[in-house]
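Summary: Need help interpreting a holo structure output

Steps to reproduce:
1. Submit the protein chain below together with the SMILES for coenzyme A.
2. Request a joint structure prediction with the ligand placed.
3. Inspect the structure token block that comes back.

Expected: a single structure record containing both the chain and the bound molecule.
Actual: see attached output.

Input attached:
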Amino acid sequence: MKKIHARTERLLLRDWEASDLEDYARIIADPLVMEHIGDGKPRPRSNAVEFIDTVLAHQESRGWTRLAVEHAKTGQLMGFCGVDDKIGRLDFGWRYAKEFWGGGYGYEAAAAALWVCQNTFSLTQITSQSYPENAGSIRIIQKMGMTQIGEGTDFGRPLVVFGFESEWPNGLK
Ligand SMILES: CC(C)(COP(=O)(O)OP(=O)(O)OC[C@H]1O[C@@H](n2cnc3c(N)ncnc32)[C@H](O)[C@@H]1OP(=O)(O)O)[C@@H](O)C(=O)NCCC(=O)NCCS
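--- attached output ---
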């Protein structure tokens, strides 16, 4: 039985299942989806295997991880939204199959996943980061109420880091 963390008008935010592997592998194999992530290259199936192993383990051990986002009407896996800590701080992010872009799902999922992180899991000092040219992601981050708290680089590309001003009064140190 799938554990559902939140329902919105059009989405289910739920725990991952091992059977999500092939759908997730297809999403991250798309160069357009991965253009603004890490080194900007599509990821092999082995990366999806590693991801599913990790999220299943995190669900079991601590409850929270990036949540699977499912299209409620069709039951299709769209991608993920939520928090991970592999960069050493709480990093809120998202990633959806191209067919779901441009319909308001990105913000719909982000608002619900943020609620889950803050209220179900009591997480604080959540950050989010993006390459500056990823206009859609930056717009969603701003609509979530985050402002710039720092900057950095990743794979030699400039990176902007966002957070809630009240939680980062001195910015990211
Ligand atoms: C970024 C992404 C999540 C956006 O999802 P989406 O469902 O298309 O976003 P929404 O439809 O909810 O749009 C939210 C806002 O961003 C704007 N927006 C979305 N994509 C945009 C783009 N490419 N350029 C400019 N603005 C964009 C929308 O117009 C909307 O603004 P508004 O509310 O002021 O009208 C999606 O394109 C995606 O999965 N990209 C690949 C993965 C990725 O880049 N992850 C983040 C790495 S940091």
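--- end attachment ---

Reviewer comment: Residues 33, 36-37, 93-96, 101-107, 130, 134-137, 139-140, 143 surround coenzyme A (CB under 6 Å). The helical segments are 21-28, 31-34, 45-61, 105-120, 135-143.
Status: needs-info
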